[in-house]
């Protein structure tokens, strides 16, 4: 009994991966492996797996105009917000995925961080694009769902499946990374090695004289945060309701996946349904 109690206590004290929670206090879920092509009014479905279904307009015909996304606006409260320190191996996987999304060829980064033991990330030049939820509700109310579509039947009418609508996305074209050693002291990153690894598409700029923090900038912004509403049905009416941000609903796309690949890897648990 004591062994079981200790195992339970250890499990309950397991620390959440900080790379999937650092935006939660600001009201956003984290895209662990950022990428282009995640937009407002996209649908996400979940059954045994979770994947992007596509734009809602592909399966929902409405007499009400689709909500018009807002122009991107600056988000100073999120801009520069750092993750907690991440183990180097995990951190380099996250960084490699982000750099590929920004346009780098699959980079090998270990040599450039040979003195580091942990890293932190922050996005700069952050913008928010959003839609009005009430307008999305009008669109659904005055619309007709293509119920003969097998994808629709599964995600909208299977009691074990769920459908979600993206209503806000955070984007950035720049990511900064800071490196520290085992004692938490700043360590320099090998800038020439990094530039050679990421290629000419990505601009690499040190932000301090010790080269312990570098900023990577790509040609186009990628999505790294999001908000969703779950679509449910009550009798003959469609409903939208919010989902609290959580590390349990952060998701990642494998670093070799193309921008439109509908195969995200989801971090979740049975008590918390996923949305993108």
TrEMBL record:
Q: How does it sit in the membrane?
A: Multi-pass membrane protein
Give the principal location in a single coarse category: membrane
* Annotated protein name in UniProt: Gasdermin bGSDM
Task: Tell me the organism.
Answer: Granulicella sibirica
Q: Which residues form a coiled coil?
A: none
Q: Which residues form the signal peptide?
A: none
Protein family according to the UniProt entry: Belongs to the bacterial gasdermin family.
Task: Tell me where on the tree of life, at the top rank, the source sits.
Answer: Bacteria
What Pfam family is a match, any one? Answer: Bact_GSDM
Q: Does the keyword Chloroplast apply?
A: no
Keyword entries, A-Z = Antiviral defense, Cell membrane, Cytoplasm, Membrane, Transmembrane, Transmembrane beta strand
Give the location in the cell. Answer: Cell membrane; Cytoplasm
